[in-house]
């Protein structure tokens, strides 16, 4: 296999693996009403945990996965996690007890922790420079586009049965042989030599922590759509699973388009400028959802918000790749995955808390729009002071 062909296959595996991760919980989002009717004795918060519990497990296990990837190698761990993802995720098709369903979702979350941490780390191992920046944008685009495809398939299958969307997790099993044949273990990822355990430089704790925080808050906002929009739409009118899936996928679709164009945008704007732009656009979209009362306007708001939030994933991974020493990259991206998905897990909890202080769910969307505007100003200020170097193109 020539180098060019092998490189293309490697990129395909990494993109497919990434596609299955970020929206892995949202695959079953259109089926939530049906799941709630089947487990009608379970509180609504338990039904929402079926959606978000994987994110908690990702939060808890991503740092461990990053350490294991640095210590023992990327490929074996990635292959194992693909298998667990497929089997644990698809088991929901057969389960009749809410406790067992939660357990299977937790195990699937552990697998996602490994898949996303390792696949993102491998991008840093395999690529560098402009090629890396472009591929990170392509990776984020594929992740969001996967959300569009899987959520709509989930909506279609949920009209057949609430169990149907769980079959989509079998993609992990299907990807296993392709990944086994294509991926090569990077030389820098093992601890085969004494020098490999010595970091070449210190981690920039301040900038890394800020990158983690931005990843977390962006996911809190992004996951308001799969976790809250179905309930918001059901208040307006009777909508089908397909209609819910279309509405939910709009944020993912525009996020995919923007992420795909990230490489070109990064060639013109700095890291800080892109963050400012992302927060400003996200504020507009969240505000539209909160201020209007129609299905069409909700779709428009989701599309606008997605176009802003779609900038955060590639921008943050690009920034972390640049400031992180190579030999601790697995651990740093394990931490990134952890905080990223903590935002997903805490999103419905945060919304439930804020809802206790506000009259309606729409007001929560407006409140988050105001938070985005505040963050726009804060990041602008940081870019002109403490992070001036990251504001330089």
Molecular structure report:
The protein is an all-alpha fold. Residues 189-200 have low confidence and may be disordered. The protein has a single domain (3-184, 203-391), classed as MFS general substrate transporter like domains (Growth Hormone, Chain: A). It has helices at residues 3-19, 32-38, 44-72, 74-90, 98-126, 129-160, 171-182, 205-222, 224-236, 241-260, 262-266, 271-291, 295-309, 312-323, 329-355, 361-384. α1 (3-19) crosses α6. It is built from 16 helices and no strands.
Q: In percent, how much strand structure appears in the residues? A: under 5%
Question: What is the helix/strand order?
Answer: HHHHHHHHHHHHHHHH
Percent range of helical residues? over 70%
CATH classification, class level: Mainly Alpha
Uncertain stretches of 5 or more adjacent residues: 189-200
Number of β-strand runs = 0
Distance between the termini: 38 Å
Question: What is the CATH topology assignment?
Answer: Growth Hormone, Chain: A
Main β-sheet description: none
CATH homologous superfamily (4th level) name: MFS general substrate transporter like domains
* Global morphology: globular
């Amino acid at each position: 296999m020539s180098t060019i062909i092998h490189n293309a296959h490697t990129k395909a595996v990494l993109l497919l693996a990434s596609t299955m991760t970020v929206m892995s919980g949202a695959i079953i989002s259109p089926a939530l009403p049906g799941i709630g009717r089947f487990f009608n004795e379970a509180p609504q918060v338990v039904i929402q945990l079926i959606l978000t519990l994987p994110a908690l497990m990702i939060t808890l296990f991503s740092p461990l996965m990053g350490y294991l990837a640095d210590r023992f190698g990327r490929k074996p761990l990635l292959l194992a996690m693909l298998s667990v993802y497929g089997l644990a995720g698809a088991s929901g098709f057969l389960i009749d007890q809410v406790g067992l369903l939660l357990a299977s979702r937790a195990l699937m979350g552990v697998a996602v922790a490994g898949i996303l941490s390792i696949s993102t780390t491998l991008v840093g191992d395999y690529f560098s420079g402009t090629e890396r920046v472009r591929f990170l944008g392509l990776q984020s685009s594929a992740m969001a586009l996967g959300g569009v495809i899987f959520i709509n398939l989930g909506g279609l299958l949920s009209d057949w049965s609430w169990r149907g969307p769980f079959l989509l997790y079998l993609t992990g099993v299907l990807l296993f042989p392709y990944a086994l044949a294509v991926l090569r273990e990077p030389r820098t990822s093992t601890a085969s030599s004494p020098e490999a355990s010595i970091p070449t430089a210190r981690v920039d704790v301040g900038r890394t922590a800020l990158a983690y925080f931005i990843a977390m808050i962006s996911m809190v906002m992004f996951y308001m759509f799969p976790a809250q929009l179905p309930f918001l739409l059901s208040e307006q009118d009777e909508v089908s699973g397909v209609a819910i899936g279309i509405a939910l996928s709009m944020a993912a679709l525009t996020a995919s388009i923007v992420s795909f164009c990230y490489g070109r945008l990064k060639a013109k704007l700095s890291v800080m400028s892109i963050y400012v732009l992302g927060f400003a656009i996200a504020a507009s979209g969240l505000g539209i959802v909160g201020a209007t009362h129609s299905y069409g306007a909700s779709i428009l708001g989701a599309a606008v918000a997605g176009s802003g939030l779609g900038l955060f994933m590639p921008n943050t991974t690009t920034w972390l790749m640049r400031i992180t020493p190579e030999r601790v990259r697995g651990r740093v991206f394990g931490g990134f995955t952890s905080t990223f998905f903590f935002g997903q897990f805490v999103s419905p909890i945060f919304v439930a808390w804020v809802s206790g202080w506000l009259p309606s769910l729409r007001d929560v969307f407006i409140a988050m729009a105001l938070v985005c505007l505040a963050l726009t100003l804060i990041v602008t200020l940081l870019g002109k002071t403490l992070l001036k170097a990251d504001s330089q193109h």
